Amino acid sequence: MAKPDSSPPFSSSSITPLPPKASASMTGSLVTPLLLVLGLLAFGVAALSITDVMVARPYDGIVLQKNQPDGKLRVLSTVPGSGAFEAGIKPGDVIQGIGRYRVRDARHAAELINRHRSGDKISYLIQRDGQRLQEVEIRLDRRSVGGGPYFYVCTLGFLFFVIGLFVLVRQPNLLASRVFFVMSCLFLLFLVCRLRPASYWGIDSFLQSIGTFAFLLLAPAFLHFFVLFPRPAWLESLEARKRWPVVLWLLRKGWIWLYVLPEAVFAVRWLINYFRPGAIEWVGGVPLSSWFLFALYLIAGFAALRANTRFVESQRERRGALIVLLGSLFGLAPLAIASFFLTAGEETTTFLLVAVLPLALVPLTFAYAIVRFQFLDIQFILRRSLLYTVTTALVTGLYAVGIALVNVFFAGSSMAAKGLWPFALALGVVLLFDPLRRRIQELLDRSFFAGRSRLQNALTDLGEAMTAQLDLQAVVGDLVDRLPQLLGFQFSALYALRGEELQRLAGPAELPKTIPLFPDLQRHLAKRKGLRRLDRLGALTFRSPETANFVQGLQSVGVESIANLASRRRFIGLALFSGRTSKTPLEDEELDLLSRLLDQAALALETALLLEETAKQAELGRELEIAATIQAQLLPAEVQVSEGWKVAVACRPARVVGGDFYSQLPIGAHCAGPLVFGDVSGKSVSGALMMMAAHEVLFSLSLAMPELAPDRLFELTNRRLCALGKRSFVALGYFETRRDGSLLYQIAGLPAPLLRKADGRVSELPLAEHRLPLGALPHGGYSALEVQLEPGDILIGYSDGVTDASSPSGEFFGEERLFDVVRAPFLRTPDDVLRAVLAAIETFAAGTPLYDDVTLVVVGRDCLGRDTLEKAP
Amino acid sequence: MKLWQYLSLAALLVIGILAFAYRCTLWFVTREEPRRFSTVSTAALAEFDAGLDDFVRTYTPDAMEHFERAWELDSHFVAPLVYMTQAYLSNDPAAKDLVERLTKIDPRRLNEREKLMVELTISRSKGDQKAQEASIRALAERFPDEPLGALLLCELDWLARDWDRAEACYQKMIERDPQLLTAQLRLGQIAMSRDRFDEAEARFITYRYVAADQAAPHATLGHLYTLLGRYDESAAAFAKALAVKPDYCDAFVGLTRLDLFMGELEAGMKVLEQLSKIPTCDYLESWGYLCRRRALFLQAAGRADDAYELVQTCASRHPFDMTEHRILVTVGQLEQARQMEERLAKSLAESPSLGPEEKAFQESLQHHMAGSRLVAEGRVGEACDAYQKADNGLLLWSGEITAFRLANRAFWLRCLELAGRGDEAERLRAEINALNPKFLDKYDLPRLTSIPPAGSAPG
Do A48 and B21 touch (CB under 8 A)? Predict the structure, then answer.
């Protein structure tokens, strides 16, 4: 195992300070929500305008001209088929009275109309050609003001808004995308509020004012965006050459003045007009000077875009910028010219054809440039989203036609007359809409996004392959080699949890071999699943300097994203990914795909790691079996006792290998050697090793010094075991049977042996004062005791594994039960006692694994003299 | 944040914004303005507003009903009483009764606006012109949104014949409340007096549009069309007025003038007969108006002697009546005519308190009478100068003045022709034709005067 690095993964001296944009992202994180709120306000105002225009009210069918300097209600057009249309109201007619009341303004007109109901015929006082007044009867219908042209401009406005929103959400920290979003909102307001058909209702003037405000701000936003789009190459060139410092200051820092100027000019002209009516010439609701300023900004914007086009090096960017330039030019110029030159009467048809229709070029060319040339680093997701939107709109249209046809087909039928009919129709639409849309979408995806589909399939295949893979190295290889190839990463790296740190399993050598665990980063990654971009961990790094250093270090070597690898059960490691060779960041959808793949990888890694561990454990098991065999061989196949004695012994290890043992020491040539039995602290392999050590020491001492007294034997063994320094103890028992019926016993750390008299009485044998287990203290002081047994008496020596045996409920076997078992009347021989105790333990444990090794050495007086017993089963 | 989260947030915010905008709009629409009157009864106030709406549109009877109900709902509510008094002449018993009710209301309960309104009403009932004018000015200045003050303020200028001020005042009123028909009518009359007939027509059409179920607006338009020679439209307008109110005297008067201008004398006589049978128009008979009008029609029919006899019997004979003077001249009673002129001159000299307009009118009348007599005496040159002076003094086109002014011009034209002043005659003819292209063709001047036809020598 490699030695872990003691130094931090990235020393502070090696960290490059964060670039200014990283700290600016903190401010940026506030700007984006603010912009979104502003966008929502714009959306809300636009929705209000559309609602006002589209809502059906008692309506005469008159569309008014806007921004009349004399405040008169001048007719722009009439809705075909409406009451006004049938009454012969003509464009240019001025409405002087409604319903026998003189009309003050549009709001008053709305109030007067609202006094009547649909179907009412009310008298209008109309002035035609500025001369004759005439009364006209006009029928009120229930209809809305808005029509096809307004729907068209609203679609354009919302198209622009959606594009702007996508750009902002995709690239929230990019200044150009923010300005683009502002411009989109202004476009939305301008189109929806400024080009709305003037209604009578009171909210009209408010919305028209908003539209005018948007119009005034649109030009600076346009200029601002074109200075930054596709890159502020021209500005950078000016900075490099240190030329035009005023322009530089204005375009870099003094933007607010460029935005304020049109409003200021408007305000001044408005005030002049207020105090000297007629002194200012108004065109299309704004002073002439505002138009000049608008044109000036527009020309400056186009010039800035042209200049940027010159300075950008990429042919691709130049082509994209040129398309945007042309689209904006041919889209906006007609609007500006038509608004300026067309008279009000021509607005309805000519204005729509000449000015509004080409306006579609603006959002379309922007969208094309963004999608085709990946401007603002926006990729296919936009294209797909747009296509999805179009698909949904098409399906909606299809359904609308379908519903209309069904309605026509069933019109007048009894089924259609039933109240449940609309619900049934709605249910049908709801049930069928999504499946149909999905089908169409799948077709479109296959047709338009084959590359994306291939990538998705490849990632799916990779995920499946990893899941099926059992080899850790193969999974690591998939993650570190194949995945970067698929997604175009420069490199990736994998770290796995090893103990308290993360160890690099694969990845470039520039990355540290080990990484300590960062709890805050860990928590953050665990909380937000999937891949996280390091540059989006700003708030996290701000809180923790260590993590900040670590993240900065990763960034400095090119790591762009990081992901937790964790299964449900445990944390496995970290995956690091560099930037892409294409220099474009991952889209959210790609991140989602990758996140799912990483989840699969985590599972595969866990499986592989588990398998690896299982294999290791299997190996260990085999080794333990060998050890158990060796240990079993250490125990004597048979033990002998002096004449007139019987003996029964058993040793049951709690694991494969145990820490208990018994043996017969090779002392005395003519009599049976003393029996020793022990219990080593620690189980399994370590216990077994200690047991073997104790066994060998006892044996070697016995062989070397056959006349050694038991107390001396224990003391020497104790010293030897202490010298091993393993802080492990050995509880030891010593039984030496004699022909005269006496028994010398010595107990160190084991429970006191039980004496069962021939009449069944059971008692514990007294123990010496000093009976610490061997190996506990360097100096012993052990002493042996002697007991005289009568024929039929039985002595039971045992390890604490007997009394510590537990039932399934956790209750210990205990000494009382042992006493009860041993006290049983039918027990005659040591073998009976041994079997009875083992059977009682087995019954009591009811299958519960033994907590500790169980060792029993049972000897008893027998009149028949020398006896030999086999080991108990 | 995911896109769907953004969009959900956006949807929530939009709903919130819409709700907020709706609430703001609701607040804006239903916000309460400062209380105009001290009454706490919303029902009384609603009745009053409905009455005011009718009042400014000259639906006086309807307005009176609403005002009466408003006062019944809150007997301390003075505004309805104030407006009701305006419907009566100041010395009318009904007005006095209303003022008495006003004085019983505890002034401590009134706000400043109401106090000024009450002061105005009381000073009017007392006939205290100065106090009334001061109250009007105070009310109009302090509460320009109160139609009563504004209207009466403009009426001060109108009565003083200060056209510029009056026009500006009414214009201002109408901008504030386009339904204020009195202002609309006055502006039309001012426009007529300044030869802005298109504007006048627009004003009167607007007047008629707002109060289409009243007879007066139709008749007003009828008078205008008569002056302008649009006789068919005029007849239709008078017919409409009579359809709305069959006993509307002014429409009958207008029809008789129309018939005179058109030379439809028999029809005119029939109209006079109808008019004499309408009880509500009795006052015309008692004033001698119908009698003199019959005499005029007899004269126009060439029956000057019958006309002379009839006019001697007319009730309320005026010391200097133009019709009678013209008949005297036609029948050759020049001395009597001269005596009538002298009575007029004496009256002018003895009435220094006459207003400028009234004085100018009477001076014009004097010149016209002199002109007619001088022609009969063969002093054509002097007669033409007298007619010119009479025309210079006539500034209005309204009611009887319209007919007088046009007739004077016709006489003046014939006089110029007799005097051989062809250029002047042509200019005047063009001027008359520009105003009423049918007038000279239809107005049978020889039968109305002693002036011989053009080209013949004076007899």
Answer: yes
The per-residue pLDDT for range A62-112, each reduced to its tens digit, is 878 766 767 788 887 777 778 888 888 888 888 989 988 888 887 788 888
Mean pLDDT of chain A, nearest integer = 78
B14 and A47 within 8 Å at the Cβ level: the answer is yes
The residue among B58, B63, B86, B67 whose CA lies nearest residue B214 is B58
| Percentage, residues of chain A above pLDDT 70 | 79
Give the distance from residue A542's alpha carbon to the nearest chain B alpha carbon, in angstroms: 20
Could you tell me the CA-to-CA distances from A413 to A72, A421, A426, B426 in Å, in that order? 49, 11, 18, 80
Instruction: State pLDDT tens for residues A206-263.
Output: 888 888 888 889 889 988 888 887 777 788 788 778 778 888 888 877 888 888 898 8
Q: Which candidate in B56, B196, B201, B209 is best for mutational testing of the A interface (most A CBs within 10 A)? A: B209
**Mean pLDDT calculated for residue range A496-514:** 86
Cα-to-chain-centroid distance, residue A136: 69
Q: At A81, phi and psi to the nearest 5?
A: 85, -10
CA distance A497 to A476: 14
- Is pLDDT above 50 for A14? no
Q: Measured between beta carbons, which residues in chain A are less than 8 angstroms from residue B212? A: 100, 123, 135
Q: Which of A627-636, A665-674, A832-841 has the lowest mean pLDDT?
A: A665-674
Q: Which residues does chain B have within 8 Å of residue A125's beta carbon, measured at their own beta carbons?
A: 205-206, 209
Give the one of B6, B205, B209 whose C-beta lies nearest to A100's C-beta: B209
